[in-house]
Design a protein that fits this description.
- The structure holds two protein chains of two kinds.
- By secondary structure, chain A is mainly β.
- Chain A has no helices and eleven strands.
- Chain A is globular and about 45 Å long.
- By secondary structure, chain B is mostly beta strands.
- Helices cover 0% and strands 50% of the residues of chain B.
- The chains are: A mainly beta, B mainly beta.
């Protein structure tokens, strides 16, 4: 079945440093979504990427979707303490079995040291 | 209706007992998912409904788990003969279509003792 892998699992950064998390799928994706989960909370949608090679920005966050639509990245510039949480990518297979599923990676837990 | 509601928020049960959780999705969303999340892990897909039809179910899902969405609105997830390994957060999510964002409920935290 479809697998979505994320690295790193944990990242500790000093406030003001940059942060990047990477996501790789075992299958070609129809689209990829990113979610943020604060400690004790539930996943909250950040953004969706659909097109091959797509890049989207939200303030200090930059999201990329690979040319082959199998990988993605999230980059945060100049982290702040409000960025603390776990970032998940989630993808839906392009076709076939599992194409209804939204499969999540294991997430990258970001800690920001003030 | 401002979001996805789940009930109860917490459930403690003895091993071997049956439990049932309820999810009320956003009213205009006809797609509904159940996920399970354990500490330090991502949400693990359990099952998917489109209206009242259960179109996909995880192959990892034990036959002790069953889900329904009888009228295409709310959904229930039942776990029979609970085991300690079932302890987790059970999340429900709904979305308008397969290409839009999923909205998650607050989850039901199950503890099997």
């Amino acid at each position: 079945g479809q697998q979505v892998m994320q690295i790193p699992q944990y990242q500790h950064v000093q406030e003001g440093e940059d942060f990047t998390t990477y996501c790789n799928s075992s299958t070609t994706l129809s689209n990829i979504q990113w979610y943020k989960q604060r400690p004790g909370g539930h996943p909250v949608f950040l953004i969706q990427l659909v097109k091959s090679g797509e890049v989207k920005k939200q303030k200090r966050l930059t999201f990329q979707f690979g040319e082959a639509k199998k990988n993605s990245s999230l980059h945060i510039t100049a982290t702040q303490t409000t960025d603390v949480g776990t970032y998940f990518c989630a993808g839906r297979a392009n076709s076939g079995a599992g194409s209804y599923q939204l499969t999540f990676g294991k997430g990258t837990k970001l800690s920001v040291i003030p | 209706d401002t979001g996805v509601s789940q009930d109860p928020r917490h459930k403690i049960t003895k091993r071997g007992q049956n439990v049932t959780f309820r999810c009320d999705p956003i009213s205009e969303h006809n797609r509904l998912y159940w996920y399970r999340q354990t500490l330090g892990q991502g949400p693990e897909f359990l099952t998917y409904f489109q209206n009242e039809a259960q179109l996909e179910k995880s192959r990892l899902l034990s036959d002790r788990f069953s889900a329904e969405r009888p009228k295409g609105s709310f959904s229930t997830l039942e776990i029979q003969r609970t085991e300690q390994g079932d302890s987790a957060m059970y999340l429900c999510a709904s979305r308008a279509n397969l290409n839009t964002e999923a909205f998650f409920g607050q989850g039901t935290r199950l503890t099997v003792v």
